[in-house]
């Protein structure tokens, strides 16, 4: 590491402990649901409907967190917002650890979901505003890298830890984030927007080292900072509404390409392919995500954002076509009136067919997860942290995060109904069509932000 970047990397590391906490929240349900469905205590035992809600209620909390995060990120700042979100994380896990009934489990999950929504908004903003253009892509991609690392960590720990002890483990990352962030600076852009120039210069000095031109960087930021507040009439301005529409569309496409559906079905796929331990299958999928997200973080500042979105979208489109083909072979007589739960019990259809083509499903899962991790996983979060003007960052980021988590809820909760209405193969071919649309949208509407300062990106939307 170059000397002048060391403290910048330290600040980014402190911030991405938030996304690591977020990953543990998302990964917690996978090993815990099977355990809670078999638990002896009838007050805590989950039936199939309750198990579904235990997994998905986090997305509702996160949607609320997106709205709250959009408000507090502009009111109290990026640093303090990250520190404050550690409170619902820890309190949520305390509720889960002390749970005496299912409703306490739900309440704990909603609280951790609320913290997740705030984190998913604030961490990318903090990192983009403290970074310089040469490393902003890499550090911004570390947000998604830490999310998938947290998911994998929960999967691995869940193999040996009971659900209460797993909750104890999951509460450590937000506590460490609170400690580390207390020593980090607020972002210079926020400080200058608040008129705190001397503090902003000190923050730049911390982040860039003593030999950087602090005054020049502050002047560049000040030239684009507009101190007046945001009012509704300004959403008629293309420099405000265009990046907002791009950000909302990126969040929409990230979910409708089918990532939650594929991850939801992955364990069943691996079981059909004779993987006896479905928990180990989750670890395999999680490991693929971590490896390819890390690859994206390494290459994103060289390849650019759009290239990764193209490659990712094409890989996901091909893999969902293969997924649909797998279902067409395994369930050839399925029609729209078929049992919507039939896809969960493949062994009842076409005896012997599944084992002969199970490799196709396993390849589809691996290919899809790798493709998503390479582009549509990390890049949308990075781009929305870069493209919004400073005065609209809180509101616009909140709208994007809200869109993401509402779509995640709808896709996860209604996936079974889709399978019944459109057939299994039809559902995955629909996901493939959305993957193709995401590539077309990227080509025509997403700007390339590689190597540009946040001020240059703002200027692009003002002048184009």
From TrEMBL:
PROSITE patterns: MFS, SUGAR_TRANSPORT_1, SUGAR_TRANSPORT_2. It is found in: Cell membrane. It is a multi-pass membrane protein. The keyword tRNA-binding does not apply. Keywords: Cell membrane, Glycoprotein, Membrane, Transmembrane, Transmembrane helix, Transport. InterPro entries: MFS_dom, MFS_sugar_transport-like, MFS_trans_sf, MFS_Trehalose_Transporter, Sugar/inositol_transpt, Sugar_transporter_CS. GO terms for biological process: D-glucose transmembrane transport. Residues 7-450 form the Major facilitator superfamily (MFS) profile domain. Gene3D superfamilies: MFS general substrate transporter like domains. The chain crosses the membrane at residues 51-73, 80-100, 106-127, 139-157, 163-184, 244-266, 278-300, 307-327, 357-383, 395-412, 424-446. GO terms for cellular component: plasma membrane. It holds the Pfam family Sugar_tr. One of its GO terms (molecular function) is dehydroascorbic acid transmembrane transporter activity. It catalyses: L-dehydroascorbate(out) = L-dehydroascorbate(in); D-fructose(out) = D-fructose(in); alpha,alpha-trehalose(in) = alpha,alpha-trehalose(out); D-glucose(out) = D-glucose(in). NCBIfam families: SP. Belongs to the major facilitator superfamily. Sugar transporter (TC 2.A.1.1) family. Glucose transporter subfamily. Insulin-regulated facilitative hexose transporter that mediates the transport of glucose and fructose. Facilitates hepatic influx of dietary trehalose, which in turn inhibits glucose and fructose influx triggering a starvation signal and hepatic autophagy through activation of AMPK and ULK1. Also able to mediate the transport of dehydroascorbate. This is Solute carrier family 2, facilitated glucose transporter member 8. It comes from Alca torda.
């Amino acid at each position: 590491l170059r000397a002048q970047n060391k403290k910048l990397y330290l600040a980014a590391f402190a911030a991405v402990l938030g996304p690591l906490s977020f990953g543990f929240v998302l990964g917690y349900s996978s090993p815990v649901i099977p355990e809670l469905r078999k638990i002896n205590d009838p007050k805590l035992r989950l039936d199939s409907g309750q198990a579904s809600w235990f997994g998905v209620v986090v997305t509702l909390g996160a949607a609320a967190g997106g709205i709250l995060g959009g408000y507090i990120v502009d009111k109290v700042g990026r640093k303090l917002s990250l520190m404050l979100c550690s409170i619902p994380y820890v309190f949520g896990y305390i509720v889960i650890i002390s749970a005496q009934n299912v409703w306490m489990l739900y309440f704990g999950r909603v609280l951790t979901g609320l913290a997740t929504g705030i984190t998913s908004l604030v961490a990318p903003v903090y990192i983009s505003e403290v970074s310089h253009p040469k490393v902003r892509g890499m550090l911004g991609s570390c947000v998604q890298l830490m999310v998938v690392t947290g998911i994998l960590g929960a999967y691995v720990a869940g193999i040996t830890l009971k659900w209460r002890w797993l909750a104890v483990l999951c509460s450590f990352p937000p506590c460490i984030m609170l400690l580390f962030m207390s020593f980090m600076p607020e972002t210079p852009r926020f400080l200058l927007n608040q008129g705190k120039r001397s503090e902003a210069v000190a923050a730049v000095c911390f982040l860039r080292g003593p030999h950087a031109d602090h005054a020049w960087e502050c002047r560049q930021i000040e030239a684009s900072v507009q101190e007046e507040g945001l009012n509704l009439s300004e959403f008629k301005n293309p420099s405000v509404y265009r990046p907002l529409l791009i950000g909302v569309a990126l969040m929409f496409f990230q979910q409708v390409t089918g990532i939650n559906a594929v991850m939801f079905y992955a364990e069943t796929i691996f079981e059909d392919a004779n993987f006896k331990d479905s928990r180990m299958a989750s670890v395999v999928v999680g490991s693929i995500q971590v490896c390819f997200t890390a690859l994206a973080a390494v290459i994103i500042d060289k390849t650019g954002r759009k290239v990764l979105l193209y490659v990712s979208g094409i890989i996901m489109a091909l893999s969902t076509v293969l997924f649909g083909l797998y279902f067409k072979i395994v369930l050839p007589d399925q029609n729209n009136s078929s049992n919507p739960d039939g896809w969960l019990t493949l062994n009842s259809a076409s005896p012997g067919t599944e084992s002969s083509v199970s490799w196709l499903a396993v390849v589809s899962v691996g290919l899809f997860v790798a493709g998503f991790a390479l582009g549509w996983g990390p890049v949308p979060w990075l781009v929305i942290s870069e493209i919004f003007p400073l005065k609209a960052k809180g509101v616009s980021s909140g709208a994007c995060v809200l869109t993401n988590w509402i779509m995640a809820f709808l896709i996860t909760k209604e996936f079974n109904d889709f399978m019944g209405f459109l057939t299994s193969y039809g559902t995955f071919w629909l996901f493939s069509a959305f993957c193709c649309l995401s590539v077309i949208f990227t080509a025509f509407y997403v700007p390339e932000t590689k190597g540009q300062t946040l001020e240059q990106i703002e200027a692009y939307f003002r002048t184009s």
